[in-house]
Amino acid sequence: MHRLAWMVLGSLVLGSTPCVAEEAPGGWEATLANHELSGPDNGPLRIGDLQGDVVVVNFWASWCKPCRKELRVLNDWADDLAGQAASVVAVSIDQDRKHAERFLADAGLTLPLYHDGPNGLARALDLPSLPCTVLLDSQGRVIRVARDGSTEVLQELRNTVRSLLDEGQTARRATEGAAG
Amino acid sequence: MQLARELRRNGAAILATGAAMVAGSPAVAGTTLHDSEAEMRFELFTDSDHVRVSSAGGSWGAALQDNWNVAVDWLRQVVTVPGIAAAPGSQEAADSVSGASRPIASDSDPHADFYKSRQQVSTALNWNGASAGYYVSSESDYFAQQVSGSFERGLLNDNLLLSLSGSYGWDSIDPAEDTDGQTEADRKTTTHGAFVATQVLTPITMLQAGVELSSVGGLQHNPYRNIYVDGGYIAERHPDSRLRQDVFFRLNQYLPNRASAKLGYKLYRDDWGIQSHTVESKLSQYVGQRVTVRYRHRYYVQTESDFFSESYTTPGGIDGYRTGDYRMGDFSSHLFGTKISVDLGRGPIEVDWLENVGIVAKYERYFNSNNFSANILETALALSF
Amino acid sequence: MKRAALLLLTVGLLAAGSILSGCATVRPYEKERLADPIMSFREETREATRELHWIEAREGSNGGTGVSGGGCACN
C72 lies in a domain? Predict the structure, then answer.
């Protein structure tokens, strides 16, 4: 019996080498820019339409516990970033849009709901994790992919957003100065 | 002796195995939206020997800062054991197989009901898959404590979850006055280890397999129970060490039309010679937006221990051990149950203050091949926030 | 009888070991069904732990409840 238990344990440990390759976000930019998301009033949104803004795209689901926690933080970001050249796009991959709506209402979050289901962008990008947060610069380039919603990762992401906004402002001032 | 005394037909003190727990969600449809929950439970247990156990308990689990979770579980039980039907000391009151297990004090009426209560609290703290817990259970003649720890790690892109856990329990047994039983204080210790692997097989199928090992030392029979041997009475006696091991498998399958089927099997054996098989199936189904219904069947069969006998001819029993505990013999049992969970916050008419409230009702019927049967009725109120 | 049970156990464990250690292909966004409360191992474990007290007082074996862990790593 003991020997059998060890056999199983050994089989698990030895056999647990990851066999799923770490995905590189190659080709994500075009896919993200062109995919049509169903918006709050069922109006469509293409992330490409937000070019010029720093965009934080967060993939979440109401059934995903770390997503729920992260979304509360991103809701605060969206409030803080209002009026700046930045957008937070929360994309729900719930099968049923009502589940996502219920969570947002229940948690008192004001982020607009972009619903896409599990077979839209999530599958097209083959998302490596959930939650997954993608940071795009004002040119629509992928700057960062955050695969978890830990405090440290979110803080780092927030700092990057700030830097990108500062760079954008500096660039704008330089352009205006040159024009003036 | 804890719930052991609920039954005059049953035996030794129960292992106090408060397994480590973490904040989970009550099985009420729709409560997954929240990370913190509280639940109040009421349970009534009645059996064919007219033993009655009323329980009130609850649990609270909350997500704290930085991936910390805390969980607290508490329980209070009142056990009523009916008075013995025959004269104390007569063979009718303590035959060789069953044996009365309630104490009979010199100043009490053995024909009157016997009451006792038990209080239990368990707590667990969880951080990033590591968990530590403490359990305590107290009653007038039994005090049990346990510390536990577990660690969980995800592999294969989180499709394989490995859990390792261990616990150590130490119980103090201080029998009440019993005119014909053992009254000296004793101890029992339990060391338990488990390894469990859960594999996601498909988007709708999960498989779990586990091995468990526990070593028990100290008093493991019921000090109140005597057995009838060749015209006289003698206290039962079990070995003071026991090595118990089991392996189990569980398969959870999501079915079309918002249902799931769960199948489980467990093989158990110990060094007292008992081997058992347990097969369990559960079918859950959502009905509309609010209601979840679950059906359950459990079948159990075991072999007898090396020292079990329907009757003993000498006080030495078998290898010096003798038992009046039917759990040491061979028998089988069935359990049929149904459970209904209602999420009050869902459905066509939504009421704000019921948004995060669920109710649960459960009824189970248990019976075994020793002509014993029991009814278990549980109701619960679950809140999520 | 014991030999047959042990043989069965060996085959079962080896089969389970090879399945468990195989290559997993379920992606994170495909786990909604697995996260459903009616698929939860965790709640079952808690319920089994609660009923241990009366089951153990009536049957000669124990165990099978495992540990709190086990799930789809999705909630």
Answer: no
Question: How many C-alpha atoms does A46 have within 13 Å on its Cβ side?
Answer: 10
* Total of domains in chain C: 1
Beta-carbon contacts of A103 under 8 Å, excluding residues fewer than 6 positions away, are A62, A68, A109, B33
Q: How high is the mean pLDDT of chain B?
A: 84
Q: How many CB atoms lie within 10 A of CB C20?
A: 25
This model of the complex carries an ipTM of: 0.79
| A178 in reach of chain C (CB within 8 A) | no
Domain count along chain B: 1
Asked whether the beta carbons of residue A127 and residue C14 sit closer than 8 angstroms, the reply is no
Nearest neighbour of B245 by CB, restricted to A1, A8, A62: A1
Under an 8 A CB cutoff, do A5 and B156 touch?
no
Supply the mean pLDDT for chain A.
82
Which of C29, C38, C40, C72 would you mutate first to test chain A, the one with the most A CBs within 10 A? C29
Contact C21 A15 (CB under 8 A): yes
- Say which CATH topology domain A39-179 has: Glutaredoxin (3.40.30)
Measured at the CA of B318, the angle between CA B313 and CA B320, to 5 degrees, comes to: 105
Are B24 and C58 an interchain contact pair (Cβ–Cβ within 8 Å)?
A: no
Owning domain of residue C35? 29-61
Q: Do A18 and B157 touch (CB under 8 A)?
A: yes
**Cα distance between residue B342 and residue B362, in whole Å:** 12
CATH of the domain at B188: 2.40.160.40
Q: Which residue of chain C comes nearest to A125, CA vs CA?
A: C29
Predicted pLDDT of residue B16 = 27
Domain of B338 in residue numbering reads as 2-384
Alpha-carbon distances of B368 from B50, B298, B299, B327, B331, rounded to whole Å:
16, 11, 10, 11, 7
Tell me which chain A residue has its CA closest to the CA of residue B65.
A151
Q: For B117-155, write each residue's pLDDT tens digit.
A: 999 999 999 998 899 999 999 988 889 999 999 999 988
Work out the minimum CA distance from C35 to partner chain A, whole angstroms.
Answer: 6
Structural tokens at position B347: 């459905």
In a domain, C35, yes or no: yes
- Contact predicate B164/B195, CB 8 Å: yes
Query: Given an 8 Å threshold on Cβ–Cβ distance, is C75 in contact with B32?
Result: yes
* Three-state secondary-structure class, residue B340: strand
Using DSSP's 3-state secondary structure scheme, residue A61 falls into: coil
Backbone angles phi, psi at A8, to 5 degrees: -65, -45
**Helix (H) or strand (E) run with residue B131 in it:** strand B130-139
Listed in sequence order, the residues at least 6 apart from B332 whose beta carbon sits closer than 8 Å to its beta carbon are B299, B300, B301, B302, B368, B369
* Per-residue pLDDT tens digits for A21-61: 334 466 889 999 999 998 877 678 999 999 899 999 999 99
HSE-CB of B374 using CA atoms within 13 angstroms? 23
C47 domain residue, yes or no: yes
- Interface contact flag, B31 C37, Cβ < 8 Å: yes
Among C23, C26, C58, most B C-beta atoms within 10 A, so best to mutate, is C58
